[in-house]
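Worked example (supplementary).
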Amino acid sequence: MIPSIEWINNKVKMIDQTVLPHDLKFLEFEDYRDVATSIKVMNIRGAPAIGVAAAMGMALATIEYKELPKEKFLEKMEEVANLIRSTRPTASNLFWAVDRIWDIISKYPDDPPMLSALVVEEAQLMAQQDINVNKSIGKNGAALLEDGDTVLTHCNAGSLATVQYGTALAPIRAAIEEGKEIQVIADETRPRLQGARLTAYELQYDKIPVKVISDTSSGLIMRLGKINKVIVGTDRVTSDAVFNKIGTYLVALAAKDNDIPFYVAAPTSTLSLHETVKDVTIEQRDSSEVSNILGKLQIVPNGVECLNYAFDITPFRLVTGIITEDGVYTPEELLKKYK
Amino acid sequence: MIPSIEWINNKVKMIDQTVLPHDLKFLEFEDYRDVATSIKVMNIRGAPAIGVAAAMGMALATIEYKELPKEKFLEKMEEVANLIRSTRPTASNLFWAVDRIWDIISKYPDDPPMLSALVVEEAQLMAQQDINVNKSIGKNGAALLEDGDTVLTHCNAGSLATVQYGTALAPIRAAIEEGKEIQVIADETRPRLQGARLTAYELQYDKIPVKVISDTSSGLIMRLGKINKVIVGTDRVTSDAVFNKIGTYLVALAAKDNDIPFYVAAPTSTLSLHETVKDVTIEQRDSSEVSNILGKLQIVPNGVECLNYAFDITPFRLVTGIITEDGVYTPEELLKKYK
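After joint prediction of all chains, the assembly is encoded as:
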């Protein structure tokens, strides 16, 4: 496992996930605008990772603007916060991270240089806390897995979606560390193929057995008895549903129809339980992500439009359990504990 | 609409569907071995079209072998039939077509030249009958569609999957001919992308409004209220389930969960009601169809295996109606009528 994002000498260093699995390339940014773009174009993706990227972007901005007069500084930082929030509108962590940084800014508005130092520290702390949270999710989720299980996952909620260790893949890593034999089946996850590219890459890198299937195959594979558990990540949990990568709802329906437990690994930073489905805007991305695979292979005739919603809504009735850093909860228990 | 397959001057002419939507290229074969290969590598695909291709392949073989002594001729034709049956083991029409040609061979085994002429005629008749059957499916299915409907389809069960006109797309064509406004949403249909490439191509060619979605999107699109009906084709209907392209089961689950009618367009040549799910072998195709999209874009790291089942099992409980050339039936009615 390589950290997907790091703060090094007032620069943000991240793996460029758009060129995996072919190249392992790193990007380094000193300008928060570049960090915002990297979130938008998905050099970095995954709810926890983009939360940390957002915080580090805010930190870069405080360094850039810290010598400005107070009012000007606050005005600029307001712009930065809005820019960063707009990059991926469905991701709860983005808002959570910006708010957490903003708390520091509001506390010390009179001293931009001092608050900048605090923000830089906070962003690095958030990265470390992300790893700690993921390890706890791993430990809590590993208890659900039995020796010999095959786990289906959708998209990439692994090390690459976090700073390190992953959310949905954390229970698998932890179970294997405990000595259990676990295999993974990864949905390829169109349109951007995070499962085929990233989940397969990071599990192979860590020598965890993984096979890839087309998104069309999960139902049959479950019917054939090849899956024991499903674990996915999430970008936002409202009081009635889990928001995660497009395609998650179909996997959940198939799991329900085949009596296979469907778990969601959700750091508490993704909980947004004051909201319901009606409050969430589903990000729509460009048609070309569907028509032209990874910008390299056009599969749709010229002139035919594609619909490209990035996230799916999985109602609580399809969710067996939600794994947070505190424990594993049914949706009802989750609401009782956190709402 | 261009016929996907034709018999012209003792040659088989077909559209090469592997290079659509970029090129409209035709293949011509005089050798039945090439026809068998064309079915296997999916130059031609779709249950009804490969039925006709199988019959035409048999016809080419009778021409090649008709001067042999009777015993030798029958021995060769037995080999040909086995070769053709082995190309796509899940497609019911393949067996149906080979059997239909074999009936003629068994009737006139003493006169290969004469039976060859009859077989050539029969293969052409089957092509014409396919079009007639599809028009009847269109008429029966059009009655289910209302003005303004948006229909989701999976894979390509259109003109390109048949000789002409299509099965799942036939009701849409017929409804539009009746003056209704109908729009289509096409699942891209990984791994071979028949929806993105072929359904989008043929509907655009015929000026029928179509949009493409990733296979991961059908559930959300239904939740958002953008789909009124689902119509898919089938490769085989047993007494308990519909076999169709991988991914169909997920679409059916989502339709059920959203109270959207799920119809299957099934020429009676696809009915195999003496069988149950247990009798059918699901074709497994090469891992590379998933890992390397259309042989052009590798999306999975080297050394990671993919599972690639070609067909899906959709149990009758998820099927609202089955549209044959005779009418529209619930699964129970279908069993009563045809079993």
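Two points are worth noting when inspecting this output. The mean pLDDT of chain A is 97. Chain A has two domains: 5-135, 142-338.
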